[in-house]
Amino acid sequence: GESVGLHLPTLSVQEGDNSIINCAYSNSASDYFIWYKQESGKGPQFIIDIRSNMDKRQGQRVTVLLNKTVKHLSLQIAATQPGDSAVYFCAENISMNTGFQKLVFGTGTRLLVSP
Amino acid sequence: EAQVTQNPRYLITVTGKKLTVTCSQNMNHEYMSWYRQDPGLGLRQIYYSMNVEVTDKGDVPEGYKVSRKEKRNFPLILESPSPNQTSLYFCASSFTPGKGRALTFGAGSRLTVL
Description:
The structure holds two protein chains of two kinds. In chain A, a hairpin with a 3-residue loop joins strand 5 and strand 6. Chain A is globular. Chain A is 0% helix and 53% strand. In chain A, the strands form two sheets. In chain A, strands 1, 3, 4, 8, 9 and 10 form a six-stranded mixed beta sheet that branches. In chain A, strands 2-7-6-5 form a four-stranded antiparallel beta sheet, with no helix packed on it. Chain A starts with 9 loop residues before the first strand and ends with a strand. By secondary structure, chain A is an all-beta fold. In chain B, 0% of the residues lie in helices and 50% in strands. Chain B contains no helices and eleven strands. In chain B, a hairpin with a 2-residue loop joins strand 5 and strand 6 (54-57). The interface between A and B is medium-sized, with 29 and 26 residues.
């Protein structure tokens, strides 16, 4: 499958544990944040998003936390499963003066889940 | 099935030999975009298109061209590839320009330039 990089920070967890993946973003004007999951051989897939007027959003087994004070985003995965093994990217959506919205991606974290 | 299809998935070429990576989406999306993915650098935008005949540069457009003659297709053209264009390329599309949630990515095209 496709390798997204050999130098990614890696989080190794046991099946059933909770995982927390962190991301620092750069632009205080970012109004929308997204987490993507990228499995080997595939393109990034949307997991969950959060708007800047929120500090927490929950999905199925996933929770995103946003701390605007320190420009930090985290993704929590409950009861991690082997199928969660992938590279996870955060992305910040910036609204530009032109009206266009630009998506800026983080470098990613590799999650390895052991049975 | 709603999808973004890129071809080729893998390509090895030599410096200076023009190549085109095709991208097609079947979701009637207005917005399409090309990214390259390199170790330690994440996804960087090359070019994007808001609609037919409307294209603009992203963050790393040098050495690339695009065209958007039809809504469904957004080919990436490397007129004279160089080794620094060795990378993993992704095409993505959406209805709402730039909204991350709506972005659908292709499976990627691994390009090696010797």
